[in-house]
Write the structure tokens for this entry.
Amino acid sequence: MVKSKSKSSDDKFNTEYTSKEEYYKNRKVECCPQCGSKTFNKHGFYNHIQRYKCSECDKTFSNSTSSLWSYSKKDIKAWTRFLKFTLEKKSLRLSAKELKISLTTAFYWRHKILNSLTLQVKKEVLGGVVHAGRVHCKESFKGCRDIKSKEIKESKWNMWDLRNPRKSIWVFSAISDNGCMFATSVKPHIKMKFFKEKIFSRVDKKSYIVPYNQDGYSATIAKEYNGKRFMEVEKDPRMIYLRRNIREFIAVFRGVATKYLQRYLELYVLVNTNGGQSYLKLMNENFLKENNFIRTYIIRDSQGYLSEA
């Protein structure tokens, strides 16, 4: 195995795999991906990758099954470089040109990685002083070819223009003084009970909430959590300029379709909380361990925001 040195001080994350065989040697299989049984036996090799056979359903699988790049014919180097391009917010066209893949392939690769980020979101509890706020944008149908509404189809407004006749999408975000952060897109005018259970459930009830942007939801939660406490807290610029920051982040990708918005928000959180994280560390720490595979039709059918219905 060839090792390349990076700027990270932790040597165990400095390993860049040169083949899928080397990559999958370190991947542990805990159960059958078909039935979930933990009883299985080794069943030979395929292309130097260990295979297994389930004792319950007799299905065969391998170390590569349900991994991020299952069924991909490209080598590990191409995927590693593409992950690096994604974290650097490079365009799909540039990535496709550098890796000599089609634009469509680059599109699905990006969303496989973004989906993995969504699945791998660590559910840390936000504690201490928590800065919370809400911004809103308009629906975006970028890339959609079957828009039924003539008014929406002929609309030339961008997703951040308040005069846009399309429906609004709310984005709630919160960041704590211990570095944890989340950003969640939701359908407008949700009930407070839904807000508490689905969005603010990751915030410790002993936290001190600092509401931003005159958001009624965050202000209501702040009254409930803070009680009679009062603290002088320095405002966090990431929340003061939340709308501008998200807008500039989305602008790098020349707009994002609403159904993919939540995946890009996870990348936004990663950049704002672990901006210096090595792409090799991300691959070893996140993508190596879990089952991150997603089929293309699921990518296309995404909703992109939470709703009560």
Notes: The chain has three domains: 21-65, 66-120+280-304, 129-256. The radius of gyration is 22 Å. DSSP finds twelve helices and seven strands in the chain.
